[in-house]
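Re: the 528-residue chain
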Amino acid sequence: RPVFDRPSSYLIYYPNGTLTSFINNKRNPIANALLEVNTREDYKAQFVSTLNYDILKNLRFTAALNTQLDNGQRVFFSPRYVTNQNGDNNAATNATSKRFYYEGQAYLNYNKSIKDNNFAATLGVSRDRVRFDDITLSGTNFVLENVNTITGSNISVLSAQRVSASAVSTGSYFARANYNYKSKYILQGVYRNDASSRFGVDNRAGNFLAGSAAWRFSDEKIFSSLKKILYDGKLRFSYGSLGNDAISPYESIPRVEIGGNSYNGVSGISTTPTFSNTALKWETTITKNLGLDLSFLKGRLSLTVDAYLRDTQDLLYDRQMPKETGYNTIKVNVGNIQNKGLEFAVSGSPVASKNFNWTVNANVSIERGRIKSLYNGEQFIAVGLGGVSGGNANYLVREGGKIGDFYGWKNLGVYEYDASNAYTPDGRRLTPVGITVKYPVRGTAADPVASTASYYELDGQRYAGTIVQKKNSDGAVLLGGDTEWEDTNNDGFINEGDRHVIGNAQPDFYLGFVNNFTYKNLSLSFII
């Protein structure tokens, strides 16, 4: 951007060949590029190891370890010549970051087949941990500009110091069992116990179950006569629960920040802007799914249909706190939401030859979501919801409401009348008689209305009752050309009581269409 902001008439070099610095508060971008130091080095190391040991013929023990170390360093230095217009100072920043991650698993696998019956089971444990360390130091007033590490600065004018460290770990026990008969009848069950360090001691562990059953009905004798048409057909049902711990590492415990503001050389200590919540627990999503898979013409055409019901319980959410508390937000398990929907997917191969192939994939899905319950039944207004488009729009979150309900005032368009801004208390418009036209200036005390009437009529009769006028949000009487907002509660004012649900951010349906063309080693695809 500085290249475009700096006028072309400004010199880049002085006649003696030295680079110019600031001219009228405009940097010299060439001087910045040539004289500033801004380097970054990143190093990565990874170690992966797997051990397999056959205890018995059908029983195998497996141990796996994956470790990764990332280390980065950034050095930035801006000499006096380009830091500021007076050339009386310089500045530097040194930053280092380190990430260490490891994941370990140990499990037993058992497989057994008895004629057409196939069994498989897994029992194991796992643990993973990731730690981040960051150090950033910034300083000014370097004695030697060719020594641009932080130790070369005047230590008394260190301008910024930031040291942070965080770690997250999870530990799990898991078990899985599978059974199928001729791949025609299929059963599976899964159990997991996951513990996360992100939650308090009493709520770290969560139990999650899953199970599924499938029937390949196309292999039944009754469908054998349709084999040339119905290549494969399967009916399936699944139930599963899944945990979510996607919160900051220490949301559940009180925290302080050290550094920040200082006094007389002593760093200050302050609480973080996010209030802790020791009662935080796993967000759990339970999904029930009924599906149908059909394949025709030896797999050239396939159809998949899914109907699902998804309940999310103990939803994790950043809730705003009153300003007088001194905190901005608190992470809470705010309530339960439910989504249900239908998904259809069709794929086919209209052309399949040796050198040329054309495949088509289309899908359509419909989803509807509702808020089933909230903490203490309290409704609130959210600004931007995860997964809901709409930028910074306000959303009404209430029990029984839809997910993504826009909350605001309804715009009725441009108001058309001056003297006709007169109504009965029940909202019927009055007809003005004997109009005197005036031309007011909005915002002045004089002439508060554009026109006045000698009297008003209702249904052809002179009206002597109470007259109500429409007003805008600041209480001024509506004039012709003003924006009119719906007075929902009919109190004659536009205020907080007139906000209501005015729409929803969720689309009516999702549609996708993909074409893939392949000719020998060339391919072309486009998406609609």
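Confidence is low (pLDDT under 50) at residues 386-391, 445-449.
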